[in-house]
Amino acid sequence: xxxxxxxxxxxxxxxxxxxxxxxxxxxxxxxxxxxxxxxxxxxxxxxxxxxxxxxxxxxxxxxxxxxxxxxxxxxxxxxxxxxxxxxxxxxxxxxxxxxxxxxxxxxxxxxxxxxxxxxxxxxxxxxxxxxxxxxxxxxxxxxxxxxxxxxxxxxxxxxxxxxxxxxxxxxxxxxxxxxxxxxxxxxxxxxxxxxxxxxxxxxxxxxxxxxxxxxxxxxxxxxxxxxxxxxxxxxxxxxxxxxxxxxxxxxxxxxxxxxxxxxxxxxxxxxxxxxxxxxxxxxxxxxxxxxxxxxxxxxxxxxxxxxxxxxxxxxxxxxxxxxxxxxxxxxxxxxxxxxxxxxxxxxxxxxxxxxxxxxxxxxxxxxxxxxxxxxxxxxxxxxxxxxxxxxxxxxxxxxxxxxxxxxxxxxxxxxxxxxxxxxxxxxxxxxxxxxxxxxxxxxxxxxxxxxxxxxxxxxxxx
Length: 462
Ligand code: ATP
Fold this sequence. Notes:
This protein has three domains: 5-78 and 159-341, BirA Bifunctional Protein, domain 2 (2-Layer Sandwich); 88-151; 367-461, 3-Layer(aba) Sandwich (Rossmann fold), CATH 3.40.50.800. 34% of the residues lie in helices and 26% in strands. It is built from 15 helices and 23 strands. The chain has helices at residues 5-18, 40-59, 75-80, 83-86, 103-109, 120-130, 176-180, 183-190, 235-251, 298-307, 333-344, 379-395, 407-417, 427-431, 451-461, and strands at residues 22-24, 36-38, 64-67, 88-93, 100-102, 148-151, 154-156, 169-171, 196-205, 220-230, 260-264, 274-282, 285-296, 313-314, 321-322, 325-332, 345-350, 353-358, 369-373, 399-401, 421-425, 436-440, 446-449. Helix 2 crosses helix 11 (333-344) and helix 12 (379-395) crosses helix 15 (451-461). The longest helix is centred in the N-terminal third of the chain and has 20 residues, at 40-59. The site of adenosine-5'-triphosphate has 16 residues, from strand 10, strand 13, strand 16 and helix 11.
């Protein structure tokens, strides 16, 4: 089946709305750019992805602990980290229709290297050189302002009661700052030995210049970050291990390996030793899914001098005190969510009709099993189906019950949300004690399974 990349994107966006994965925020008020709501299926998938990450990054390991730090923090943190000055993206505005563009990304789309770390002067030069190739995405005219760097930290007036909001606090622009500033608390309360990590999942906010590409670039999103503290000499060895570990963790979600690749950062910030992104092949091409960075001792050094508190580790044997180095893994929940949907989205032919299905790995599917009575108007079938639903629901979650419409339609609905197994109760189940039929989402094949074996049969496959 041939389809262009816009079609694929539209199909996924439409499925997300139709089946309750993702809704545009504030839709009845005309929407609110850069923000989305996760519906009943979306929240299940999202939670499964976060649980998977937590399992891999915290529970499976003896050397990482979790944290849930606050969204609001002292504004001094964002000064010390450099965000109030440097957390900015290059922006130009169309003089005809006021549409804003993020200039580094627009240049990248033309195959020209540019990034947010470039100075205003550098990026203006590149923009001028290539202006003839750049059109406003909205009105298609070519009349732009000069490029200026726009700070993407989101300001609030929390704790500031002046009209002018002259001392703003910020909604955190990344979750890792909460980890750095709790380094000493974790050290003093848990006494971990180097190397060790602190992991956190939580909301982050950025005033993205052009929030686009569905869930890829949001203004409110969730991050999953793990900061791993090492001895200076061990930094690069641990970095390599973390890269390998994250690759394995992402593959274990069922993502196809050919849709992933490594991308090395050519333009490093001055303190970074090395940085790679894991990129996913989104409908518009390969783009960042998560970053893995070797950050040296920059973050703890900055917060040490910003706060005046010593953020050091003391070696028990040598008594030597030093600032640990950090290797980090930093990914976004919604980007992973989107990548998973792109990877799982399939169309095939079944029963002479095109069907849409999400080939999600059973462990991350929003619904694990759907239970159907063959007919809605036969109480004996409905009662038996409810009994089996109750039995399954005790052992496997979540399970859904559906008696609406013909079986074919019920299968299609479950295929579209990626439910790996549908269990049907028919007359043979009750009259001949012949078990139930279990239908496999990907192959459409049906198998008779005795009721007594049903839980273990399904558990072994989920
Ligand atoms: P980009 O270059 O795409 O703006 P970034 O390099 O600034 O991203 P980081 O600051 O390294 O991103 O953030 C780490 C991860 O957080 C990213 O790999 C991505 O998965 C996620 N992320 C960052 N910004 C957004 C956003 N606006 N919407 C959704 N996820 C995001």
